[in-house]
Specification:
two-stranded antiparallel ribbon, 10 strands, 308 residues, 8-stranded parallel sheet, binds NADP nicotinamide-adenine-dinucleotide phosphate, TIM Barrel, alpha/beta
């Protein structure tokens, strides 16, 4: 039986989750009168919270399904909407799709997935499978994963967008050696989104790709905003700098995420997390103030000393 969120709340399960990890109320209470930072997708005008969630590590062999479920329930309850996955992440699409159905939140979320095949038929099969696994009649965003078969996949994706199966389309990379090729694709195709790796400790995409996306009217999803955890290792147990209070950052994670979402243009980090308390921390980064250009430079200089 499919349980909607309303059913779960009726059963009291929602209340249990709220008690376990803390709800939106405590976060909002820390920022009286302040709403969540929102971003506008240039091509469609749709508004999204400035923080998403990546689900690369939602794999059933980890036997943590109840924790993943609580992570997504927490993310959603706190106001998170954008979720990124891929058929390339083990059985993440199956796991995520099952949880979204179970919680009855599929239609609330902005679901982004990817296609990771070189050939046309393989790409079509893969995208049809994603519909079955993740549910729904359309996807908010379909992306070519790491530029695999870009030209043939974009042809199908554009046709399906015209048919209303995809609301937005884009391409992804997480590797600097693909930046020139990504820029070339951005120049030749009218994409809605591009996804790149970018972080306070990994700023190459900020030199050209992110400003170019802004010029071309494309939104940017930022993967690896924590450098897969390397940023936490670099700061170690150092206390937060005094300026963290000026941008309402209470943790290093919030410092890293606010740095990303404060970039000019529509730039939305999608930190990967499998933990409810990290979902609380990460969604909290979209509350309160963001660093201006002067402070962002100070943040960069400090991070460079940590990573030297
Ligand atoms: N080419 C591509 O298209 C591409 C490539 C890579 C990634 N992606 C997408 O981008 C997403 C993000 O990348 P990623 O997950 O590889 O790397 P990431 O976001 O840089 O880092 C994830 C790591 O940070 C930890 N973490 C999350 N929130 C935290 C917090 N508040 N405090 C401390 N640690 C925290 C996570 O652990 P826990 O799980 O324990 O929270 C995990 O170990 C992926 O999930 C995927 O959706 C796309």
């Amino acid at each position: 039986m499919k349980l909607s969120r309303r059913d779960l709340l009726k059963l009291g399960a929602g209340a249990g989750l709220t008690a376990a990890v803390g709800g939106l109320e405590p976060i909002a209470a820390q920022f009286p009168g302040q709403a969540m930072q929102m971003k506008t997708i240039p091509s469609s005008g749709q508004q999204l919270p400035a923080i998403g969630i990546g689900t690369r590590n939602f794999r059933s062999q980890d036997a943590e399904l109840s924790v993943y479920r609580e992570t997504l329930a927490t993310f959603h309850r706190l106001g998170g909407r954008l979720l990124d996955t891929s058929p390339n992440y083990g059985d993440s699409e199956d796991v995520v799709g099952g949880i979204l159905r179970d919680l009855g939140i599929r239609d609330d979320l902005f679901v982004a997935t990817k296609v990771d095949r070189e050939d046309r038929e393989g790409g079509i099969r893969r995208m049809e499978e994603s519909f079955v696994k993740l549910g729904g009649d359309d996807f908010d965003l379909m992306q070519v994963h790491n530029l695999r078969g870009t030209e043939v996949q974009l042809e199908t994706m554009k046709a399906w967008k015209d048919q209303g199966r995809f609301r937005h389309i884009g391409v992804t990379t997480s590797s600097e050696n693909q930046y020139d090729a990504v820029e070339d694709v951005m120049r030749r195709h009218d994409l809605d989104f591009v996804q790149v790796d970018f972080a306070l400790g990994n700023r190459s995409a900020g030199d050209r790709l992110i400003p170019f996306a802004h010029d071309r009217g494309m939104a940017v999803l930022v993967n690896l905003p924590f450098g897969r955890g390397r940023m936490f290792e670099a700061v170690g147990d150092r206390p937060l700098p005094e300026w963290a209070a000026d941008i309402d950052a209470k943790t290093w994670a919030q410092v890293f995420l606010k740095y990303v979402m404060a970039q000019p243009g529509t730039v939305i980090p999608i930190p990967g997390t499998t933990k409810p308390h990290h979902a609380v921390d990460n969604v909290g980064s979209a509350m309160g103030r963001l660093p201006d250009a002067r402070l962002r430079q100070e943040m960069e200089e400090l991070m460079d000393t940590f990573m030297a």
